[in-house]
Design brief:
The complex is a heterotrimer of chains A (about 280), B (about 375) and C (about 300). Chain A is mainly alpha-helical and about 280 residues long. Chain A has one domain (about 10-250): Orthogonal Bundle (MetI-like fold), CATH 1.10.3720.10. Helix content of chain A is about 75%, strand content about 0%. Chain A contains 13 helices and no strands. Mean pLDDT of chain A is about 80; it is low at about 255-285. With about 375 residues, chain B is an alpha+beta fold. In chain B, strands 6-7-8-3-9-10 form a 6-stranded mixed sheet, sandwiched between helices. In chain B, strands 13-12-11-14-20 form a 5-stranded antiparallel sheet. Chain B starts with 13 loop residues before the first strand and ends in a 10-residue tail after the last strand. Chain C is globular. In chain C, helix 10 (about 190-200) packs antiparallel against helix 11. Chain C contains 15 helices and no strands. By secondary structure, chain C is mostly helical. The chains are: A mainly alpha (about 280), B alpha+beta (about 375), C mainly alpha (about 300). Chains A and C meet through helix 1, helix 3, helix 5, helix 6 and helix 10 of A and helix 3, helix 5, helix 6, helix 7 and helix 9 of C.
């Protein structure tokens, strides 16, 4: 590349990074700024809004509920999806594509559309089973299906599942032992990936909860903002930073350790997971 | 772009004049001067990072030199951008435009030179025929083998009738059999169109086989420039001796313009070499093996440990007790030498080079 | 050993145990199919059936003619406008960002930071995102107040943040990072040799983009833009948090129908709207997949 073009290119890159960097960081900075504003005009900066979080019972219960939902969804995802995927690979490879297809369906059904079909089901659940907010986990599991499928799929593709399980079986291991002692330890980073993305999605979920009339974290934030904007923004920032931290861990630490020569593939795998998280198609919004 | 018919004699002279190029702290080219005669094919040979590719890219105009000049056909083109230099280029691999057929790829350069559709279709057809791909004109890159892709790339580069043709390791991504066939093909086509050509490679066999002259490069400098036979049989520097062909590194002592290797006295390429212990670089062909007499153990007596049949010649590995020596000789003479045979080394009295460093006195 | 092989061997040795194992292997898949059946296929079925029946269960197409009511047509128009505009802006912005990233060091920290951050920002939506923009360019937002103090009032007449232009601006926030993520692989597939070959053949930058890079990237760019369209077309939470009154876009209309008394009165209408959305997103994502496949043939 000649010098003049390299110079022009650098100029272009720097401009893009500065302009877009500002576009993406200023709103987050603005939230922080807003959450530390005093209530009165010209009041000094303070952390009242942040302190108010724990004194707002609605928020505390919503935060608790969302965290519980995150954990339940995550565990249910692992218990349902991982054994199914392993079993299909070992015994029904011809069904692999079908399972993948089913798991990716939620990408093409907008959450706002799916919830329309869920309303009658939840009405039935409320009457016959429970009206606890934790029943939302059933819906959230659908929500996280595509992303966790892709993450686990990447992990399973990286190990020789057949040989591993046959070796363990020939040594006398039961299927449960094979799962817990052989499969899980060998794809720990894929499981971490799937779990982190599930937790992040559940913590950011608004559509299902709002329209099925449950008060989870996001619904509570929206609701509290009508009375105390500062506090709800403080919670929003906190939740956002928490989700950012999870997703940053996912993209930096959560990838499998690979030799340098394969680093490019790893980037690609990351891109694949993230592209799906990006291809989210409005689920969390 | 010239519109004259392709053919011998339309090559132009190319001069690289003291070209220098640094990348940060690394020197890619430390003053390269090289003249290509009209119609000549010069191969630049060297290990990766020796500056050969930089030289080619400077000539193409894809990089700018820190200092020095590039003169093509008597015109200083140092500051002319790549797209106005009239230089055809074949890259290592994957350079075909994947969304165009072979035909369209070849036409593309002519289109950029405002050649009319009918004319360029005809000429693209001719070029594809020249490289033997008429039957594949409508295929896309992903439908062709690596060798076919490189032929199309060659046709594409030549279709604009460039003043100079540059080949940047065009064969290195191909497998061995295709490589040697395409190498001969490139040479045939180059002789047919007569375009002055610079060929960059790290493969010594390739360079020696294809070029009128070979330039061996090391650390941004041209170590030696000459016809292939000279490069091989009269290497000017230890680097060339070791990079081109196989070389034995034999311990010896320099004394008064000669080197004593295991009792054999050999002349030196540079008779002014200071006296003292040294490593002599001896080609396997300069070593012959004799079986005669009582073979009393001595400095020149060894045991054959392996023989490799290479066709007309055979390569024999001899264990000398303190290291091994390679000998290459006609297969007819090597027939009797099987592993375990005791042999006497006979060193041909060719002038030898002395290695720069004093590492292990075994063959390299 | 294949699944079939193992059962065959077992069957030969111990016929009874073998056949039992064969039937038991299916059991492992039952939970997955029951669950997805109940919470993925049943809701879809409810939507399809519900949109084609009256309250009493008789077949009807009235729910779809219901979409033709002017306020719903307007909502569809607004949804399409917002989605198209934010997809176009997001695609251009994201493509420029992707180009800036792709031309840098492929192993560099900058690239890793930008791709990771994009993964995060593409997820960012809903209530928090709406708040972020209200705090930035809302009536008491930092940037608005700052610019107003310096003589630039970008709300001369109305606060457009709470209307279509505001939604477009805010959607851009997750569209640009999504574009980066889906478009970067295509840019990475562009080889530097193609530019150099164009140059050596006598082409300049314009020729390169016009004849080489442009046609090569066009299918992928178009496909990614479609994906962005589907992405904002389905988005609900951000709009819900920003716009508390009325149903400017289709997702808000669906929400209104679900929660209001009118919705209870006409349950089929929400379902037919939902079905219409699914069809739109399905068509758009299918086109995206086809266009991506086209690109992957060229650019590997």
């Amino acid at each position: 590349m000649t010098r003049s073009r390299r110079f022009k290119l650098q100029l272009f890159r720097i401009t893009i990074f500065i302009v877009l960097g500002a576009f993406f960081l200023v709103p987050i900075g603005a939230m922080l700024e807003f959450s530390t504003r005093g209530n009165a005009i010209n009041a000094p900066r303070n952390l009242d809004a942040w302190k108010n979080i724990v004194q707002t019972p609605d928020l505390v219960s919503a935060i608790t509920a969302s965290l519980e939902l995150a954990v339940i969804t995550c565990l249910a995802m692992l218990v349902l999806l991982l054994p199914t995927m392993v079993w299909v690979r070992l015994r029904f490879p011809q069904l692999n594509r079908a399972i993948e297809f089913i798991c990716l369906i939620p990408l093409t059904v907008p959450a706002i559309a799916l919830v329309v079909g869920m309303v009658p089901i939840y009405r039935w659940i409320n009457i016959n089973l429970s009206d606890s907010i934790l029943t939302l986990a059933f819906a959230y599991l659908i929500l996280v299906l595509p992303y966790s499928y892709r993450a686990l799929d990447a992990g399973l593709s990286a190990i020789d599942l057949k040989t591993l399980s046959e070796a363990a079986r020939s040594l006398g291991a039961r299927w449960g032992t094979v799962m817990l002692r052989v499969v899980v330890p060998n794809m720990s980073s894929a499981i971490l990936n799937a779990s982190l993305i599930s937790v992040a999605l559940v913590l950011g979920e608004f559509t299902f909860a709002n329209l099925l009339a449950y008060e989870n974290l996001q619904v509570a934030i929206n609701y509290v903002s009508l009375v105390d904007a500062g506090t709800s923004i403080a919670v929003a920032v906190a939740a956002l930073l928490f989700a950012f931290a999870l997703l940053m861990i996912l993209s930096f630490v959560g990838r499998p350790p690979v030799p340098v020569a394969k680093a490019e593939d790893a980037d690609f795998e990351l891109g694949k997971t993230v592209s799906l998280s990006g291809g989210l198609v409005g689920r969390a919004r | 772009m010239t519109t004259g018919a392709a053919g011998p004699g339309r090559g132009v002279e190319v001069r690289l004049d003291d070209l220098q190029r640094r990348y940060g702290n690394a020197t890619a080219l430390a003053g390269l001067t090289l003249t290509l005669a009209p119609g000549e094919l010069v191969a630049l040979l060297g290990p990766s990072g020796c500056g050969k590719t930089t030289a080619l890219r400077l000539l193409a105009g894809l990089e700018e030199p820190d200092s020095g000049r590039v003169v093509v056909d008597g015109v200083d083109v140092t500051n002319v951008p790549a797209n106005r230099r009239d230089i055809g280029m074949v890259f290592q691999a994957y350079s075909l435009f994947p969304h165009m057929s072979a035909m369209r790829n070849v036409e593309f350069g002519m289109q950029l030179h405002d050649v009319g559709p009918a004319e360029r279709r005809k000429r693209a057809g001719d070029m594809l025929e020249l490289v033997g791909l008429s039957a594949h004109a409508h295929k896309y890159a992903h439908q062709m083998s690596g060798g076919q892709q490189q032929r199309v790339a060659l046709a594409r580069a030549l279709a604009i009738e460039p003043k100079v043709l540059l080949l940047d390791e065009p064969l290195s991504a191909l497998d061995a059999k295709v490589r040697s066939r395409l190498r001969d093909e490139i040479r045939r086509v180059q002789l047919e169109v007569g375009t002055t050509t610079l060929f960059v490679t790290h493969d010594q066999e390739e360079a020696l086989a294809i070029a009128d002259r070979v330039g061996v490069m090391n650390a941004g400098r041209l170590e030696q420039l000459g016809p292939p036979t000279t490069i091989y049989s009269r290497p000017a520097t230890p680097f060339v001796a070791e990079f081109v062909g196989l070389t034995n590194r034999l311990a010896g002592v320099v004394k008064d313009g000669e080197v004593d290797v295991r009792g054999a006295r050999l002349p030196l390429v540079k008779p002014d070499t200071p006296n003292g212990p040294a490593i002599a670089l001896v080609r396997p062909e300069a070593v012959s093996l004799v079986v005669d007499g009582d073979m009393v153990p001595g400095p020149l007596i060894g045991t054959v440990i392996a023989t490799a049949f290479l066709g007309a010649t055979s390569r024999i590995t001899v264990d000398m007790g303190d290291g091994t020596v390679l000998a290459q000789m006609p297969t007819s003479e090597a027939g009797a030498l099987s592993a375990g045979t005791r042999v006497r080394l006979a060193l041909r009295k060719d002038p030898v080079l002395i290695a720069r460093d004093e590492s292990k006195p075994t063959e390299a | 050993m294949t699944a079939a092989g193992s059962t065959a061997i077992a069957a030969a040795g111990r016929p009874i145990a073998g056949s039992r194992r064969l039937s038991l292997t299916w059991v492992g898949l039952v939970p997955f199919f029951i669950y997805t059946g109940l919470f993925l296929f049943l809701p879809t079925l409810i939507i399809v059936v519900g949109s084609l029946t009256t309250k009493d269960g008789a077949f009807t197409t009235a729910n779809f003619s219901g979409i033709a009511q002017s306020y719903l047509v307007k909502a569809f128009g607004a949804s399409i406008t917002i989605s198209a505009a934010s997809a176009a802006i997001g695609a251009i912005g994201g493509a420029l960002l992707a180009y800036a990233v792709a031309t840098g060091n492929p192993r560099g920290i900058l690239r890793r930071t930008v791709t990771s951050a994009s993964g995060v920002f593409a997820q960012f939506g809903g209530v928090t995102l709406a708040f972020a923009f209200i705090d930035t360019v809302g009536y008491t937002g930092v940037v608005y107040l700052f610019l107003k103090d310096h003589g630039l009032d970008f709300y001369p007449k109305c606060v457009w943040l709470y209307d279509l232009p505001g939604l477009i601006l805010i959607y851009t926030y997750f569209q640009i990072p999504l574009m980066l993520i889906v478009f970067l692989p295509a840019l990475d597939g562009i080889r530097p040799q193609w530019r150099e070959a164009t140059e050596s053949l006598g082409g300049d930058t314009w020729h390169y983009w016009r004849y080489v890079a442009g046609p090569l990237l066009a299918p992928s760019f178009l496909g990614c833009t479609l994906l962005l369209f589907a992405n904002s077309f389905s988005a609900y939470a951000t709009a819900a948090a920003l716009i508390t009154q009325g149903g400017v876009i289709v997702p808000l209309q669906i929400a209104n129908l679900l929660t209001s008394e009118t919705g209870r009165a006409a349950p089929g209408l929400a379902k037919s709207l939902a079905l219409a959305m699914i069809v739109v997103v399905l068509v758009v994502t299918t086109l995206y997949t086809l266009l991506q496949r086209r690109t992957s043939q060229w650019v590997r």
